[in-house]
Amino acid sequence: MGQRRPKLAVWKFSSCDGCQLSLLDCEDELLTVAGAVEIAYFLEATRVEIRGPYDVSLVEGSIGTPHDAERIRKIRQQSKTLITIGACATAGGIQALRNFRDVEGFIRAVYARPEFIDTLATSTAIQDHVKVDFELRGCPINKEQLLEVLNAFLNGRRPVVPPHSQCVECKLHGTVCVMVARGTPCLGPVTQAGCGNLCPRHDRGCYGCFGPKETPNTAALAKQLTALGWNDADIANAFRSFNANAEAFRREGDVHEG
Fold first, then answer.
1. CATH number of the domain enclosing 97
2. Greatest alpha-carbon span in the chain
């Protein structure tokens, strides 16, 4: 009898499915992944459902309803290792913009029968509800980083995912700083690397897709953005995007509110 393959489950909560698609986008590597694990639950790819417990669970999406909150607790109980993938799962996602506004007012304005809407007033990260073993950032995640994280946990080691800023990635790629050279507002100094230097190498400022880097100095960056001509509303909007509810970005956005 052959050795049992680890069970992998992929779960979706409030999200766009983009991070799950990053796993399918692995193409050639996906066959190796499928050979190394037993895909027990992954509705984006197969209707097959194998009961837990699961060795590794990948979780995409934020918690936005009471049902979500109950469901993630059950998934945690069935998962030896739980890894959150993407901005929605790690910081509440773009839907966390509701956290700064009157959700009840929106429901009354949009829905003819608001009493049928069962939602929470906030959109929050998975770690706000259960213990998370590792967070993989991005909107969407980087597929090479996803493969590294899976490899690491299947082989009992810590994933090698850099905590440094996008600025370091620009230097490594030989990309000229768009903020220094062109005066283009950019969140790169406070954003974790991982996108492959996508926007700066196309002469655009970083949008902060991978969330705050380790110990980000958001106040210093906000001062520089002001010097480049941005007002408080511009700065608040910049920090309130894909990772609006990440602590460092949320705090800086609040400073420039109104």
1. 3.40.50.700
2. 68
Q: Is residue 187 domain-resident? A: yes
DSSP per-residue codes, 22-86: HHHTTTHHHHHHHHHSEEEE-TTT---B--S-EEEEEEESBB-SHHHHHHHHHHHHHEEEEEEES
Copy the structure tokens of residue 217. Answer: 């100095």
Structural domain boundaries, residue 59: 7-154
Tokens of 215: 């110990």
pLDDT digits (tens, 9 = 90+) for 147-184: 999 999 988 999 999 889 999 999 999 999 999 999 99
- 249 membership: H or E segment, kind and range: helix 247-255
* pTM attached to this predicted model: 0.93
Count how many domains the chain has: 2
| Residue whose entry in the numeric block shows the structure tokens 């299947």 | 154
